[in-house]
Amino acid sequence: MKRSLLFLSFIIIFSVVSIQLLVIPHFESNVRYPTEKWALEFLTSGSTDLLAQQLQSIPKHQRMAYLQNIQANFGFELTLQDYQQSDFSSEQQSWLAEDKIWGDPQTDLAYRKIDDEQLLVIVKPNTVPKHLINEAQRWMMGSFYLLNNMLMQHPQQSWPSIIDSLSDDFTYPVALMTLSELTYTEQQIAQLKTGAIVTISTADSDFIGYPADIAVQRIKNSDKVIVLGPFSPQLKGKVVYMLSIFYFIFGFFLLIPIIIWLIPGWRSMLSLNKVAILLGQGKFDARAKLIRFSHLNHLSKTFNTMAEKIQRLISSHKTLINAVSHELRTPIARIEFNVELLRNSTTNDYQLGQLERIELSLNELNSLVSEMLTHARFEREIPTLTFATVELNHWIKQELICWQEANPDTEIVLLEQGACHAMIDKFYMSRALSNLMRNAIAYGRNHIQVSYEQTAKGWLICVADNGDGIPLPCAEKVFEPFYREDQSRNLQVGGTGLGLAIVKQILGWHEGTASVEPSSLGGACFILNWPAKRTHR
Q: TM segments (predicted)?
């Protein structure tokens, strides 16, 4: 177990190191960097495009002074840079040539081409001090400043058309609304009237970790407001994609060592399950395999030790029964020979009576030895069975004729229900029925009732008597070898204690069961139940 835990610790450490050295760099370059690049371009698109268009109309030597003059109205630093194509890759040059923003999260810069000689650069937009204003306001304040200035240069009735024409420069929605159309709180409306930027958070903005989903500002002293956003519909998809990949990578690569650790244990469990099934089928030589690196090998060893002890116990039990059964036949035969000699050499009635008692005991002993050998043989191997279709009514009636003739004082009744064809081995099923009849005659009170029935799953035969019955706690035990529920009663009626155990064996060969329950006659009712569909042996 300790070795297995050390192995698990080693592969977890190896997996974490592999993630850090091999997986994370690929994640950063292929997932996180493109996502952050897109977000940087998305949030700076509107203000940067408008500002670049304004700078195009300003002489080159005056542009930097203009940026410094308006810098306080932006939430990030603005500067200019000479456009040296050698500083950019062919992909970046192509991107800038289309007047698109190129964001670089690694350097925290964003570039927008003004003309062939100069670039507008946003410097470290993600690292500007945030204690002055909240994040959403900081990103949007430049856009509001440029839009306000542009709208104030035109009459109010033309503002909607101007906003519509500028919406293509923004990657997020831009709308023009009146204060009366807003459904915000009184406090938020009051803030708007003072000219402040109001940000509105939603469940989606909280989910993606962005401080707000909508930003709103009043246009000077008018009743109009500019509404930017919502931002989450596009940001959320990107963030969810990045987080999904991130958690999948970590979850997957951390599961690998656990799976590697569990596979040997899983194989051990399969081996134990297979061996348990084989032991249940009587194949006591089956053993569980010891799987390399399995943390359940100690359990497999314990299980194998138990199986070995059971195998030795059963083997010694069978050997003992076989030896005793065979060895008893010789002294029994000698006693029978001596009894016959004594019977022929005496005419004393008392002595002849004693010889008859000895002969009865010998017959009972012979029966016991015969049953022991039969039971041991059935335990050792299943005989070849010959299954055939039998009409139960006719077959049971023929079987009962012999028992009625041998026991004229016992009333044996067959409850006939018409033709019923069943698949059985006649020889061994006759043996099972005979054992039940012998049991009913021995323990009943001169009345036995036999019935049969075809069920939805197969067939059953019932043998009921009017004896004392069998207590429910003993219902399963009576089918065990040599079990006697009442020792004194069994001494009176005789029996070997193996008859019902043999019945159970025979029904097992038919893939059925033998059971007992209270009889309507007052005694016990033994039931033989076997299925219609069976596997031919």
A: 239-263
